[in-house]
Amino acid sequence: MRSLRYIPRPPLSDFVGLFWFYEGYRQPHKKERLLPDGSMELVINLREDQTRLYDRHDTDRVRTFSGSLIVGVHSQFFVIDTAEQASVVGVHFKPGGAFPFLGLPASELRNSHLSLETLWGAHAGELRERLLEAATPQAMFRILEDVLLARARRLERHPAVAFALHEFYSVPHTRTISEVTGQIGLSAKRFIQVFDSEVGLTPKLFCRVRRFQKVLRLVGTGRSVEWAGVAADCGYFDQAHFIRDFRAFSGLNPSTYLAQSTEHLNHVPIID
Questions:
Q1: Taken in order 111, 115, 120, 126, is the CA torsion positive or negative?
Q2: Which tens digit of pLDDT belongs to each residue from 147-204?
Q3: Which of 3, 43, 191, 219 is the most exposed, having the fewest neighbouring CB atoms within 10 Å of its CB?
Q4: Model's pTM, two decimal places?
Q5: What is the pLDDT of residues 46-88, one digit of tens each?
Q6: Domain containing 245 — which CATH number?
Q7: Is 107 part of a structural domain of the chain?
Q8: How many structural domains does the chain have?
């Protein structure tokens, strides 16, 4: 398998975490759960102009999209087809980083997927063709970088969102919404509206997702897990609260996740 990553230059780097490329990625299982992390993704299937996603509750049911897909910010898992990862390139946006390129509030894509052509029209197909003609993954990254810079309406966040993301991303379970709101000069209602529009989640839900991601990082260290300690370290009231949140985001209880997890913490195999 070949895997490459590229971090773009400023100012794009303030909104894009990285560009990524996978080739020859094969798994013994056909489907995977993909867990929420508070961010959005642009995924382009280079092998076939198609993307298949499965129903969360009945994985025999499938929906088909074009090969260029916008993955909205999620607060629940969704199910992907591993065969489509044979040759794929994508953009991993930072939390709140996709909105300058979409032309609509990020909140409208929450827990959903959308063919890129729905937003970009014929330009989506043109982008995929340019990527297919590129000689190297590095050339693909340069194309993506140029296209995003050209499409950006305004590469800046609302100051309140920028401040809140810094606070929430650093310590998501120690900063309350009211504490942050008190420092940004907006009413609580207005702050939630602005944050939801740019990030795609309300501040409270975003913090819950980031706390869940902290759990995954802790249990992914390979050491034996003491769940009560993990719950306390991540700011849950008690173990019952921790388990409820874990199931809400992953559809699994923590011990089942640990038994099924791989080195890719947000990808959980589904064994038919």
A1: positive
A2: 999 999 789 999 999 999 988 877 655 566 778 888 888 888 999 999 999 999 999 9
A3: 3
A4: 0.93
A5: 999 999 999 999 999 999 999 999 999 999 999 999 988 889 9
A6: 1.10.10.60
A7: yes
A8: 2
The half-sphere exposure of 260 on its side-chain side, counting CA atoms within 13 A, is 19
d(CA 11, CA 156): 9
